[in-house]
Amino acid sequence: MSAPLFGRVALIGVGLIGSSLARVLQRDGLAGEIVACARSQATRDAVARLGLADRITADPAEAARDADLVVLCTPLSAYAEIARRIAPELKPGAIVSDVGSVKGAAIRDIAPALPAGVHLVPGHPVAGTEHSGPEAGFAEIFQDRWCILTPLPGGDDAALERVSLLWQAAGMKVVTMDAEHHDMVLAITSHLPHLIAYTIVGTATDLEETLKSEVIKFSAGGFRDFTRIAASDPVMWRDVFLANREAVLEMLQRFTEDLTALQRAIRWGEGDKLQELFIRTRAIRRSIIEAKQA
Amino acid sequence: MSAPLFGRVALIGVGLIGSSLARVLQRDGLAGEIVACARSQATRDAVARLGLADRITADPAEAARDADLVVLCTPLSAYAEIARRIAPELKPGAIVSDVGSVKGAAIRDIAPALPAGVHLVPGHPVAGTEHSGPEAGFAEIFQDRWCILTPLPGGDDAALERVSLLWQAAGMKVVTMDAEHHDMVLAITSHLPHLIAYTIVGTATDLEETLKSEVIKFSAGGFRDFTRIAASDPVMWRDVFLANREAVLEMLQRFTEDLTALQRAIRWGEGDKLQELFIRTRAIRRSIIEAKQA
After folding, report:
1. How many Å apart are CA B218 and CA A270, to the nearest integer?
2. CATH 3.40.630.30 at B6-178, yes or no
3. B219 pLDDT band (50/70/90 cuts)?
4. Which of A90, A198, B174, B275 would you label with A219, given CA atoms 20 to 30 Å apart?
């Protein structure tokens, strides 16, 4: 058997994505040793019960000590504090990566803390479900999905290559782009859809009681799809919207203008305008099916 | 073998729902004869090729002649004209029903044209996919979904019962409510979600070209679910929004207020407000799973 891709891998945060990554590391023998770090006792117990790591700790510094790869898999708001705590323990040549949905904020919060000789490779495996926690993870979650890496200018090519190999082993198609561009693309493909789904489901929860029970009963008409998205992890998504504020507000502004135009068309009975848009949106669906992302 | 539930059944419109209903009628032997009516030659050819009817015609009047049950399965905007054309051909005791998503407008457009002794039983099987046309239909589309009937005050109980039996045979759970209430419930569970999905997919189609191709590529982050909804039949949905204008605008207004509040929370970094909402919306998802509508 050949040597594993990494010696010691530390996963800081072991929720849906962190635990799925642990499962990939185990399945493919990609790590000499897996150290899992989780703040809550319940998560650490679950990780132990599921046998997802060789060692489990509540202390990020202890997890990062002598690690060859440290992957931050926590909500974004924890990054700055974690970076500060792991920095003194990182050995020269260690790679620090993450799986967060906003890359500008990730770099802003991690990079300044890292000592020279440690390589930062920010990453975002675009995969997930509406479920959370270590029990919800599974190795196949990454299969055939995209992983976006946003290396810093002048970053270490060998480190980038090794992180890329890791996600390819997980079944992902890996691309690189700059962090700012990533954050704009994800604002429209992921953050705005989540924001809207959360909103409409919230609007429904505020309905009169009689109406509310029927909303649940007749949810198959379209609403149901939104509730699935709006069941995603609350803390993770709170952090995403705060961390990608500029891009989300920009896309939200465009959306609101378009919605207002449709509202006006409905009010004035302008069927042609509605139909024209609905034909246009159908074509996008076809493109997604052709791109095998459906 | 017992007598079928209906003698001659005329389906006016043979798209996704009409053709699915034809398949149920055939599967369960619910009709002595099925007459299909479609305006376009292409649809009539497809119905013939698929063997979905005993007779096929382009003329609603011819289809309705001597029928025991006539079901309108066209977009809502065609109802008034169809009602006017079939009325002189309807025999006493005949039942007229429909499958449209807006019941107030359906009653407004059909009821005045019908002769005395003909029974109107407006219906809405809450089922569908993003696909259209007779090839897209399948008998199981109705299975375990709700069918809402909105009988008129003083309507014929026996006619209501027979239409109810038809949809129960299709596997549906049948409930009755008044048309106005139906239109309000569907505005939030179906019409508003579709409107929003159409809007966000439209917003994405207006993006700069470079961004647009990446939106398709990275659609798995949430956007994809919206594109499926926004691929639904353009003419049918144009009609739904125009026919249920008041209720849709009312729900849209509530949604917009809620979205504006979230926008403000993001702008001012009010994480608590975001998280509080996201926890609340999660609970709705659980209710839907418990109601077995997920």
Report:
1. 33
2. no
3. confident
4. B275
